């Protein structure tokens, strides 16, 4: 091994920590972002402790070499993609749930703990960790924190940042520090823990996470569904539910393309002429849940829904949500490349945005399906292109850029919950403008003066 | 006027904006923190617009002179205290509620808007701005954001940071920038809006604030009260309520000294032999509220409360909360100097902390009353000393320091919601340690290289 950094890492760490075989290294070089470029890594390191992480960071700092931290690699923006000559640091072997404290309602976990595993362990103690990205069976808390992951619950319960109390972080110089606190409140100094959340590994390597938990929800949520003939009617329903002060615990949208895909795959018998299906859940205690479900139903109907119903039993409620659950896998069944967009609009502009996406799809001749966390205005257009069709890929890329532009034109953001990574860098520059970008870069420069931590991500 | 900076400000701004008369300037030189030192300002400026703020910041930057931003001056840590030769920038004339948007559930306000005024305006639209510091009739949103203000609602609804979506900020170089977003979610770049919250005017001057709102609560909260003979029993009650998964919308503690003071002032007939009064409110929809109130009552009784009751009507509920509401004014009635401490403990350590405070009061011969946001572990020991008694003041200062040390020893933070300002600087240094302090200073240096923004606060 002629790379002195790799030789140093091999000498400093137990043998199984450092991977260099190109075949073994290959899956660690990128996340799940279709089309995001990635480079070649000098090595992949899988430390088992904070001290081992610090050894890796200090070695990279000494050699002025890039370090790319990585969770489970389920990201959709290229945030974990390798750059040439880097060391990829995978947290996959740091998967201990260190502590769950019922009295303080918090959990302490290593970054490699899988989201669903924490949720299950918390549930055993009567507690609940709400953030629920679609990747929750595989994605890890470290990655969730690094990207400030969202999910279905956000509309009522907030995103990952709302749950992070404290972090142990290895800084760019290899020091181990603790930021944040274990107490419910605290204002001692700048909120560095909050700053680390969503920074995609560019400001430090997260080695331990303390999250706030909620009491476990009891009871079964009630589900309301409504099919709408037009995007405008569905948008009106979203606005009406919000303006009436209702607070669904999930509020999702599935478009016609998804409905067709689910029917094609599962013969689900969903109405194929509807433009949009809206699904809402309420988790209030009864009888407030029934009242809220009835109120949501009334607003759906007032906005022009047909076939609007709300469930009275849990099995039915679950079945109603299947159209949402099955939409993504149904599209995957088609065997095409799937590029997941992620823009967030003011709720009231969602219908207008969907109309623009329809127009963009037609103009570029690209198939685009849409799912959305409707209550948050967080839209995921899914761009489908046949594998190997370079012309289709170019058209889809142009459509992707147009969607970003349209979101900005409607007062939205270029990324609601997936992160900047590589794919959203141009959009973020357009969104923030040069003055705010300069502030972002000043923060990066302050905390990583050598620029070794995940270079090229977030701030470019 | 021989000061060239003041002359420049007078030339650049309309006549009524700049105050220099020492008698007029005097009340602007400090906040309500007893004993925090303050210097003499060159001038007080009361801009009416963001552009005028930018004029002031640019002038200070050109002259390398300190700028101390200030809201209503209700702070309790000295965060708004003048330093010698500074310009005090008061936001008191920027008090426009720019927008309340029901569909997006947000409000846009200037920094000088009073907390209660926003709450009232939101209520007219069926919306609610939860953060409710005790200063809410006077304190302004700018100050609330600068200190990340808390209050009674935090225990269920979170602190100011949880409501800030976006900020317009004048940077240290006098540029006007917007950070954050208007959408419900967003992860485009580092969370600079979150970083500004709680930064006490040291990273930028906040000129406009976009906050998230909630639907207005309907119904009357139910109140549960319980008197406890020992601190341990009260601490046990707090832990039991938390561990049972109950979520009171307020959960307060009032100690014996406060009960005596309220009785002395209002002849309230509160039991004077009780060590602690706990008060909890629940705002769930009925009948869940009644069930939660009954469950809280049961936990109070299991922990050994006597005279535990819960209200069945709103007037009675309100009367029960009077002991909490009247505690601080009752102490003020004594006509002594009142120093308000603000430490936050893990909830489970609250009783132990109260015992330590009792011991500290005895050791230093200082009268200390205690109120607490018990459900958050956020304790406010109130140190009383006769005006002009220098020896008593020195003893109280020593007690203040011991309380901070005790909070740290129990795993707490030196400030739960009042901010670092000047009074908590030594405590914060002890809490964070040199490595994290260095990161804090790096952030300050990055965003205010000249160090003109509220120098000496937060990071010292």
UniProtKB/TrEMBL annotation, chains A, B:
Gene3D superfamilies named in the record: 3.30.465.10, 3.30.70.2740, Vanillyl-alcohol Oxidase, Chain A, domain 4
Cofactor(s) required, per the database record: FAD
Organism: Pseudonocardia kunmingensis
Flavoprotein is among the record's keywords: yes
Domain FAD-binding PCMH-type intervals: 37-216
Pfam families to which the protein is assigned, alphabetical: FAD-oxidase_C, FAD_binding_4
Name this protein carries in UniProt: Glycolate oxidase
Oxidoreductase listed as a keyword: yes
Gene Ontology MF, one: FAD binding
